[in-house]
Design goal:
Distance between the termini: 44 Å
Helix content: 25-40%
Shape: globular
Number of domains: 2
Strand content: 15-25%
CATH superfamily of the largest domain: Type I PLP-dependent aspartate aminotransferase-like (Major domain)
Structural class: alpha/beta
CATH architecture of the largest domain: 3-Layer(aba) Sandwich
CATH topology of the largest domain: Aspartate Aminotransferase, domain 2
Largest sheet: 7 strands, mixed
Radius of gyration: 22 Å
Strand order of the largest sheet: 2-8-7-6-5-3-4
Number of helices: 12
Length: about 400
């Protein structure tokens, strides 16, 4: 399937210019159809019964885990479906056995979802070390080499910044973690949808990402684990092999695999939709998607750089970033810019702090930025429209 041919699968771009995919991507028609098919033709619970519908739904749900594992090279490990990246990260934060004096290393670049769960561990006596990047949002590997000590239990970092789009050196950080005996968690919410990600190649212990940023439905997320070393956040239906209230101290024996971590009835149609989204991305080719986005990003960065009063944040090198481009215009509030882009040209972007308040403070951006985030359904013509409209708005400054 060619990227140009896929545009017909998306309804919204036919009348609006959607550039807010870092918040939530659009869904193609085949994904919507797969979810409707479940609800219309074989809606039943999974892993609960022997009638034909539940057996069929269960098989589709298990297949969904396999397909999602495949796109990240995660066949060796456990792929757990969650509600979103936030839930996945919180499962790790709550599921490890923390002791007073343990150490977590993270960064000022993180989305709140990969920062607040670690900050909350301070209540247990865990030390949280926060590393700061250079002005382009890039870290020197020496900073991690110094911060990751023998008593560091875990390092948590976003593969790609959701605010300024820079790609971080996760392989090098993973090597440091392995040497020091620390677990390594990667927030892949902004990387898995946009370029090839392989957990074996990275060498991480945990990878967390969301379905709704990669053409899938909202309410879907993934926690991939190299080993089942965390305790489940919730227990209940579907998580046990046996319950013996007169037996063990806990009174139950947990099962293994993803079922151990997925208590209760899951988001079945969402999982099926996510699997279809993964298939859709694979058919397009993750390398092809990345090349397409690089072309758009390079064009946008070049265009913005030539406009007076416009400030760009993050790396200007398209090789070291994805199509998440944050900018400001002198003397105009980011919210006003976003509003004008919508009103004048039907261009939809995000404005504000992007759930990255510490980063905005670090960059001295009291009101945040305007963020245009591109994906496979965006075109060069749309980028040109964005550039020309920003030129008009910048003249007001």
């Amino acid at each position: 399937m060619n990227i140009k041919d896929c545009l017909a699968d998306f309804q919204i771009p036919q009348y609006l210019h959607y550039m807010d995919s870092a918040a939530t991507s659009l869904m193609p028609e085949p994904v919507i159809a797969s979810m409707n098919e479940y609800d219309r033709q074989y809606r039943a619970n999974v892993g609960r019964g022997m009638h034909r519908l539940t057996r069929f739904a269960t098989q589709r749900y298990q297949d969904a885990h396999d397909k999602v594992s495949g796109i990240i090279g995660g066949e060796k490990g456990t792929t757990v479906f969650t509600g979103n990246t936030t839930e996945a990260i919180n499962m790790v934060a709550a599921g490890l056995d923390w002791q007073q004096g343990d150490r977590v290393v993270t960064t000022v670049m993180e989305h709140h979802s990969n920062l607040l769960p670690w900050l909350r561990l301070r209540q247990k006596g865990v030390e949280v070390v926060i590393i700061k990047p250079d002005s382009e949002g890039i870290f020197k590997i020496e900073a991690f080499d110094e911060a990751v000590t023998a008593d560091t239990k875990l390092v948590a970092i976003s593969h790609v910044s959701n605010a300024i789009g820079t790609i971080q050196p996760v392989r090098e950080i993973a090597a440091i973690c392995k040497e020091r005996g620390a677990y390594f968690l990667v927030d892949g919410a902004q990387s898995v949808p946009h370029f090839p990600v392989d957990v074996q190649d990275i060498g991480c212990d945990f990878l967390c990402f969301s379905g709704h940023k990669m053409l899938g439905p909202t309410g879907t997320g993934v926690l991939w684990m190299k080993a089942e070393i965390i305790y489940p956040l919730m227990v209940g239906g579907g998580t046990v092999d046996d319950v013996d209230i007169e037996g063990s101290a806990e009174g139950y024996t947990l099962t293994s695999g993803y079922k151990r971590y997925e208590a209760g009835t899951p988001n079945i149609s969402g999982a099926i939709g996510l699997a279809k989204a993964v298939k859709y991305l694979k058919n397009l080719g993750m390398d092809a998607i990345f090349r397409h986005e690089q072309k758009l990003t390079e064009h946008l960065l070049s265009g913005l750089a030539g406009i007076n009063n416009v400030n760009i944040y993050g790396s200007l090198d398209p090789e070291n970033r994805v199509g998440v481009v944050s900018f400001t215009i002198d003397r105009i509030h980011p919210h006003e810019i976003a509003y004008l882009l919508d009103e004048r040209a039907a261009i939809l972007v995000r404005s504000g702090d992007h759930c990255c308040i510490p980063l905005m403070k670090y960059l001295g951006l009291e009101n945040g930025t305007v963020r245009a985030s591109l994906y496979l359904y965006n075109t060069l013509e749309e980028v040109d429209l964005l550039i020309e409209t920003i030129k008009e708005i910048a003249r007001m400054a």
